[in-house]
Amino acid sequence: MSDAEPPRPIDPAAVTAGIERTNELLQRVLAKVSTTPSIHAVFADAGYVYAAMGRLAAGTEDRRAFDLDAEGLIDAFIDKARTIFPDSRLLRVYWYDGARRRLHTTEQQRIAELPDVKVRLGNLNANNQQKGVDSLIRTDLETLARHRAISDAVLIGGDEDLVSAVEAAQSYGARVHLWGIEATGGRNQADPLLWEVDSQRTFDLDFCKPYVTRRSAGYEPFPDTGGEGAPAPGREDVRFVGARVASRWLGERGRDTLAELLPGHPYLPGSTDQELLNEAEGLLQHSLRGHADLRRALRDGFWDHLQAQLL
Fold first, then answer.
1. Confidence class of residue 225 from pLDDT cuts 50, 70 and 90?
2. Quick check: 120 and 140 in contact, CB under 8 A?
3. Phi, psi at residue 123, to the nearest 5°?
4. In angstroms, how far is the first alpha carbon of the chain from the final one?
């Protein structure tokens, strides 16, 4: 005969109580998750952006042959991400570029001054090739995903070496969305990278053209000096011009049309921002490209007038 004790009878009340405690815990977890805002970040390989947009819109990859309105382009990327992730908050834009001895160029300094933008520099060798940029992207992607700092990552690049960065981020639950620039022939993004990401998006020539200006000898539409020896306009002058443009647009385009911009404050859609910039430069007879502080003043004046009239 066995000395084993007979099994104890199951207590239905205890089982029910255990299930209720488990359900309560799950409900708390779900409630916490539902109230945690989604966060996205943009990781842009500037070397890829310059080369691909230059080839598409200016016919060359040589940075010396064209100007890229990086500020306007970054704003357009932010605006596009906001429309794709409407319930998500932007962490920041990471702008990866190369520089000799990792010392910021004047252009990179201007980009670094932009709100919500972090410039990360790799080395630039004697052949003007970037070194170390891919590892910077991987480190940032993996770190942010591991700490649950982002739920979605927008990656703008094309190098196959970025596959490991995508895999690292995805292993921690982040979704990676690959954005690219239309190629003039074939592809400018590696197939393994395209296969690995969660979604893909390509920007065409119409999107890129407003941000690329081909340089030609002896010609510059709006010289940075606004004329030989002329000083740059003051912030209040630029702010006034922003309000002036907003006032004219209200009369021409109507309140309903411009009211659609309000939910995007403080950002403007890329095409609208370019129109504002072009019109302001015409009124000021001075280039605001490369002057991040003045372009912010321009937008401030535009928004101030718009909100005063529409809110």
1. very low
2. yes
3. -85, 155
4. 88
